[in-house]
Amino acid sequence: MALMGVQLVVSLLAASIMQRMAPHCSFARWLLCSGSLYRFKHPSEGELCALAGKQIPKQTKRDRRQNGESKPLTVPKDIDLHLEKAPVNVIDALVLRFFLEYQWLVDFAVYSTGIFLFTECYYSIVDASKEVNIGAIWCVLTVLFGLKTLHTLMSHYFRSEEGGERSVCLSFGFLSLLVAMLVLVVREDYLEFGLESGFSNLFDNLEVFARQQGYAEWSIPVTKLTVKLGLAAVCAYIGALLAFPGLRLAQTHLDAVQMNSDRPLIQILLHMSFMSPVIVLILWVKPIARDFLANAPMGKTSVTIIPSAAFDSIRLWIIVVLCVLRLGLTRYHLQAYLNLAQKWVEQMKKEAGRIAAVDIQRKVTRVFCYLTVVTLQYLVPILLILFSTLSLKALGDFSWFVGVEETPGVTPALVMPTAAPVLPGELDEDEDGVEDMEEDIQATVARLSEAFTALRAVLTPLFFRGFFAFLTWWVAACQVISSLFGIYFHQYLMQN
Questions:
Q1: End-to-end Cα separation, the chain, in angstroms
Q2: Which residues fall within 8 angstroms of residue 119, CB to CB, at 6 or more apart?
Q3: Least packed by Cβ within 10 Å: which of 18, 130, 206, 475?
Q4: Is residue 451 part of a domain?
């Protein structure tokens, strides 16, 4: 049986290209440094003094440190300050915090998309049912790397002692735990994830596998309640990770809409992008989505808008289109964030009193320094939803073609392949070294084939359908909760 075949060659080739092309050609660098985004430079002390109508005396720095006292230069807050714009270039971006993590993750997601498209075309042409789907593995890895990146950002907030970031993450984590426990007790008639049938199928396969391995008396000491409690804990962790991305999304959305006040089409797209997680939530609410579209009431009769058999494929397409829309509006949100520097200066002009020049420089510079953090907070939730959906399609045996009836895998008969017997005495003595190497390679391939066969027999498409459907829905739910709270915070609480 072929282990991975052509897919393995393409996967290794993509990994090699990614490693060699990253310093020269990077989609992540192009997204930030193509010249379409511009930042604001902080004013120098000389410019601030000129606007304040005075000059910096000579030996200023030495005078400020006399007697061990710090005497910062201060200027009136209502000075006529206008920040200078400059396009974001590669030199500026390389010094930003988390830039390397951002570049690696985005480029990996781009190559994962390419490999997934290749495997989809490959499976549509060749009957590769016995091969491992490499595209699905890359998609799952992208989801895991995205969660790891969010964990790194959250750990940065936990180490911070300046504000209440740690409390915000913990609060959203506990809120997510409560919501997840409520969601997991909802019947499948309302939320059609397929978790119940998926986990039942998994437990049945594990018991069959254990018996074939000689553990006749072995049984799984896990109840459905234990599984759901563990899944709720994972949901709480994901909710804590997505707390600040949702709050940041709310702020950049409001600023982007205001920035494009003279472009109604862009405003409509921005509102559609912001509401797209809500649409993802509705797609798994069976009475609103599947049942309504399959039997839409029309007077005393019912009309079938979308057949139930085609609904799964259409749902996948809708989620992918919504993710592409959000990715296409990335630069509007990033520019809205960079405009916070000028927005803060305009707010400062309305205040009375004086402010230290170094505080003005620090405020303006800090906005640009966190550009890659904001970019990750915007992109990673989209990538999680997108690649969870792609994993759902690939591992759940769904089809992109509307009207194709998919039948998920059920409990299979576990027949473990055996490695080919080793016959050491067949070749000449001069070729013993080559023979041993070939035998080792064949034995390794046989063991890997056996492991993948066992894994595919235990983790069937029925399980993957339930797991990745719930994961996709839950990431969207966390974004809805945190972003709506962010809208309320920025629109009402910040105004008071």
A1: 68
A2: 7, 133, 134, 135, 136, 394
A3: 130
A4: no
Which residues lie across from 76 on neighbouring strands? 354
Q: Which helix (H) or strand (E) holds 301?
A: strand 301-303
Letter string b/e over residues 427-436, b meaning 16 or more CB atoms within 10 A of that residue's CB = eeeeeeeebe
Q: What angle do CA 79, 81, 83 make, to 5 degrees?
A: 165
**Percent helix, percent strand, percent coil in the chain, to nearest 5:** 70, 5, 30
Please give the pLDDT value at position 436: 64
**Burial class for 95, CB neighbours closer than 10 Å (0-12, 13-18, 19+):** exposed
- Residue 302 sits at φ, ψ, to 5 deg, of -125, 145
Residue 433 belongs to some domain of the structure: no
Q: How far apart are CA 1 and CA 36, in angstroms?
A: 50
In a domain, 425, yes or no: no
Judge whether 243 lies within some domain: yes
Nearest in space to 343 (alpha carbons), one of 267, 255, 277, 420:
255
Question: pLDDT tens for residues 423-461?
Answer: 444 445 445 555 666 666 667 766 766 666 777 777 788
Domain span at 143: 6-64+85-412+460-493
pLDDT at 415: 45
Instruction: For residue 384, give every residue at least 6 positions away whose Cβ sits within 8 Å of its Cβ, in sequence order, or none.
Output: 143, 146, 147, 475
**Burial of residue 83, with CB atoms counted within 10 A of its CB: 0-12 exposed, 13-18 middle, 19 or more buried:** middle
State how far the Cα of 177 lies from the Cα of 444, in Å rounded to an integer: 43
* Three-class secondary structure of residue 131 per DSSP: coil
Q: Which helix (H) or strand (E) holds 9?
A: helix 6-21
> 157 or 253: whose pLDDT is higher?
253
pLDDT at 375: 95
Ramachandran sector of residue 403 (left: φ over 0; alpha: ψ -120 to 50; beta: rest)? left
pLDDT of residue 418: 43
DSSP H or E run through 38: strand 38-41
Sign (positive/negative) of CA torsion 326, 480, 252, 373?
Answer: negative
Torsion from C-alpha of 111, 115, 117, 120, nearest 10 degrees = -160
Rg of the chain taking only CA atoms, in angstroms: 28
pLDDT of the residue at 401: 82
Task: Specify the 3-state DSSP secondary structure of 306.
Answer: coil
Q: Which two tokens stand for residue 462?
A: 């029925």
- 8 Å CB contact between 238 and 481: no
Domains held by the chain: number: 1
pLDDT classification of 108: cutoffs 50, 70, 90: very high
Q: What percent of the chain has pLDDT over 90?
A: 39
Token output for 312: 């799964």
DSSP assigned state of 22: T
